[in-house]
Amino acid sequence: MFIDWIAFAEARREAHQAVQWLARAARANLPAAPDDSHTSLTWDAGRGALLGQLLGDSLRLGVGIAGLELFADEGDALPLAGLDDATAAEWIDALLARRGLQPASAVTLPYEVERASYGKTEPGALIHLARWFSVADSALEALRGRAGNLRPGPGPVRTWPHHFDMATLIALEEGDPETARSIGAGVSMGDGYYDQPYAYISPWPRPDTAKLPTAPRPGHWHTRDFVSLVASADDLLGAGAMDDVLGEFLAESCDVARSVLNR
Description:
Elements: H1 5-29, E1 42-44, E2 49-51, E3 61-64, E4 69-72, E5 77-79, H2 85-98, H3 123-146, E6 153-154, E7 158-160, E8 165-171, E9 182-188, E10 198-204, E11 220-222, E12 228-232, H4 233-238, H5 242-260
Antiparallel strand pairs: 1-2, 2-3, 3-4, 4-5, 6-8, 7-8, 8-9, 9-10, 10-12, 11-12
């Protein structure tokens, strides 16, 4: 399957920028969680959308990925193609004000997001992006079920607006998260390390790179800045049906990570 990863990267940038409005609304209206999970997003497969946390009594904001639109559960929607962030800010602030909530536009994010212009990418690339989120969500939920016998065990599958990756943390022991053994499992939609989506399994604490076992196919060990078992989209697509290969890679890599951590 040929995918234009340049167009995909532009779709990722546009969607990444759009979901910052969900993060800003959460930061403006929810108590801060120590792990920043109050800003995290969940995937709604039925709507093909990333949803923010519940605001107030019943308001939930979302971004439809394939159509690139902001929406609220109450029915309001704003297609973003051809608009700028000032227009998006006006729309979302008005919606929040009607519910007695604080404006999202007043929030300054504690990280940088690569800027994009809404509507510059090909619609097909946004459809591919939505497909990757859907497949990633299914594979990570399956991995959570497989790891359900571990304790403390896997946390929820979340999408993080900072790195724009979907992930779950599988805790292998109690204690300080900085030192307790765990496995981070996720799918990034692409970043400065890989210009396309990639699956990763990250054992923690960081293992000795001189003693790493063989990586499951079609992956490899990534050791620059972080240590993870990684398989890029091209690796996965070259090995078979994306749905099957992604799940198998995550499961096999999780077993390898447990062996590295002696768990």
